[in-house]
Design a protein that fits this description.
The protein has 301 residues and is an all-alpha fold. It has twelve helices and no strands. The chain has one domain. Helix 6 runs antiparallel to helix 12. The chain starts with a helix and ends in a 7-residue tail after the last helix.
Length: 301
C-alpha cells in the first residue's frame, strides 16, 4: 500500500479516536482524576510505550537536534495539553471545539512564514470550506451549551496555536530522523515539563477505580495518546502539516455520529442530538474541504 494512502488512513484513524475520546474522557474526569494528573498519566504511559519500541531502533540524535525536539515536545505535547484542559475546564465545549478547528488556518500561515510553503488555491478553498462546515456543524450540535469564558477561550486559542506550531516545527526533524525516534524524545522531555503540574494534584489520587474507569484510562493512554501521536507524526512525515491539520475538521463529524449511536441506546443522552439534513450538508462541506486541501495545484502568485 502506498505510504501516502497509509498516511491519509492514519489521519482518519487519529480523528476517529479523538472524536470518540470526547465521550470516553468524561467517564474519568472530573470525578476520578483531575486534569493535570490525567495529563501526567497519559504522557507517562505513552512515554513508556514509545521508549519500549525505541529500544529496537538504534538511531543517534545530534545534540543540536535534541534541543529542537525538546521545543517540539514543549509545544506539541506539554503546553498543548495543559492549555487545552485548563481552557476546557472554564469555557464551553462548543467554544472550545470552534476555536480548535481554526488550527488548519494557523498551520497554513505558519507553514507559509516558517517553511516557506506555497499557498495553493485548493488549500485556500479547502481550508475555508472545512472551517465553515465545522463551525456550522458545531453550532447545530451545541444544544444551547454556551457557557463562554474569555480566559478559557484564550487558553484554547493558545492550545490550537501551540499544536499548530508543533506540526510546523516537527516537519524538518522528520525529514532527518525516524518518526519513532523524534516522538520518543518529545514525550520524554514533555514528561519532565508536566511533572510539577501533575504532582500538585496527586493528593487525592487513588488506584481504587471501577473497571469501566480503568478501561477508559487505558483507552486514553493507548489510543488517544500513544496511537494518535504516532499515527499523526507518521502522516506529517509523508504529507504536509497543512494536510495533516485539515483532518481536524472531521472530529465534529465523528463525534456527531458516535453521539447519535449513543443516543439510540440511551434516551437520556443528548450528545450532538439528531442527524439532520443541515448537519449532512455541513459534513459534505467538511469532506470537500479535506479533499481539496489534500490535492496539489499550482501555487497562488
Amino acid at each position: 500500500m502506498p505510504k501516502n494512502l497509509l498516511a491519509h488512513l492514519a489521519l482518519l484513524a487519529v480523528n476517529l479516536i479523538y472524536g470518540s475520546s470526547h465521550f470516553i474522557a468524561k467517564i474519568v474526569m472530573p470525578d476520578y482524576l483531575k486534569p493535570n494528573t490525567f495529563i501526567l498519566l497519559r504522557i507517562f504511559g505513552a512515554t513508556l510505550m514509545f521508549w519500549s519500541l525505541r529500544f529496537f531502533i538504534r538511531e543517534k540524535v545530534e545534540n543540536k537536534d535534541l534541543i529542537k525536539i525538546a521545543i517540539a515536545g514543549f509545544f506539541g505535547v506539554a503546553l498543548n495539553q495543559l492549555l487545552f484542559f485548563q481552557g476546557l475546564s472554564i469555557t464551553s465545549p462548543i467554544d472550545s471545539a470552534i476555536i480548535m478547528v481554526t488550527s488548519p488556518v494557523i498551520v497554513t500561515l505558519l507553514s507559509f512564514f516558517i517553511l516557506k510553503t506555497k499557498l495553493t488555491s485548493n488549500k485556500v478553498i479547502g481550508i475555508s470550506s472545512g472551517l465553515i462546515g465545522a463551525i456550522l456543524l458545531i453550532y447545530l450540535s451545541s444544544n444551547g451549551n454556551t457557557d463562554s469564558s474569555i480566559l478559557g477561550n484564550l487558553f484554547i486559542l493558545g492550545n490550537a496555536t501551540s499544536y499548530s506550531l508543533y506540526l510546523v516545527l516537527v516537519k524538518p526533524l522528520l525529514n532527518k530522523y525516524k518518526p519513532l525516534t523524534v516522538i520518543s524524545y518529545m514525550f520524554l522531555f514533555a514528561f519532565f515539563i508536566v511533572l510539577p503540574f501533575g504532582i500538585q494534584d496527586l493528593d487525592d489520587f487513588s488506584w481504587d477505580f471501577p473497571p469501566t474507569v480503568l478501561l477508559a484510562i487505558g483507552f486514553i493512554i493507548l489510543f488517544t495518546t500513544f496511537c494518535t501521536y504516532l499515527f499523526n507524526i507518521f502522516a506529517v512525515k509523508q504529507l504536509s502539516p497543512t494536510i495533516a491539520s485539515s483532518y481536524i475538521y472531521l472530529q465534529p463529524v465523528f463525534a456527531m455520529l458516535i453521539g447519535f449511536f449513543i443516543a439510540l441506546g440511551d434516551s437520556n443522552s443528548n450528545h450532538f442530538g439528531e442527524i439532520t439534513w443541515q448537519k449532512i450538508g455541513c459534513t459534505l462541506l467538511i469532506f470537500t474541504g479535506v479533499f481539496l486541501t489534500s490535492r496539489t495545484k499550482k501555487a497562488i502568485n
